[in-house]
Automatic annotation (TrEMBL):
Residues covered by the MaoC-like domain: 17-122
Stored InterPro entries: HotDog_dom_sf (IPR029069), MaoC-like_dom (IPR002539), MCH/BMMD (IPR052342)
Organism of derivation: Protofrankia coriariae
Domain of life: Bacteria
Family stated for the protein in its record: Belongs to the enoyl-CoA hydratase/isomerase family.
Protein name: Dehydratase
Coiled coil: none
Length: 157
């Protein structure tokens, strides 16, 4: 007999406070990624778009848009944690970017389950707080963000 397996996130009941998920594969950031994200979001900051300007800053080169970095770090977690099991994002907090990301850097992500509780108003659902951490190819922390999500409990019956 053949069993079909479908990739999905974790249900509320499967999330354990303190567990850390290491997400793979990583994602190498290209110039196209940065320019497209930056222009789509109307963030015309010269540090993200103008190589000549950026070359004369303390960084010496174009910086990757920090919101692209955060989005990618959170996105890397979806397959392991929330694909098909999340109801909604409730909010983000404590977002920090302790080191810059440059074109050609590879982002890796890990996520810690910070808190889990059943919803008092939504049966079969609960609230989970995740801490997403983005690391570059050298293992340096480049992004940390707390995310609160409404998650499904495992189906019964």
């Amino acid at each position: 007999m053949v069993t079909t397996h479908v990739r999905r996130g974790r249900y509320l009941d499967e999330l354990v406070v303190g567990d850390v998920y290491s997400h793979r594969p990583g994602r190498t950031v290209t110039d196209t990624d940065n320019v497209l994200f930056t222009t789509l979001t109307m963030n015309t900051q010269s540090l993200h778009l103008d190589a000549d300007y950026a070359s004369r800053t303390e960084f010496g080169r174009v910086l990757v848009n920090s919101l692209f970095t955060m989005s990618t770090v959170v996105g890397l977690s979806v397959g392991d944690l929330t694909e098909g099991t999340t109801v909604a994002n409730l909010g983000f907090s404590e977002i920090v970017f302790p080191a810059p990301v440059f074109i050609g850097d590879t982002l890796f992500a890990e996520t810690e389950v910070v808190s889990v509780r059943e919803s008092s108003s939504r049966r079969g659902q609960g609230v989970v707080e995740f801490e997403h951490r983005g690391l570059n190819q050298r293992g340096k922390l480049v992004c940390r963000a707390r995310r609160t999500a409404l998650m499904l409990a495992a189906p019964t019956g």
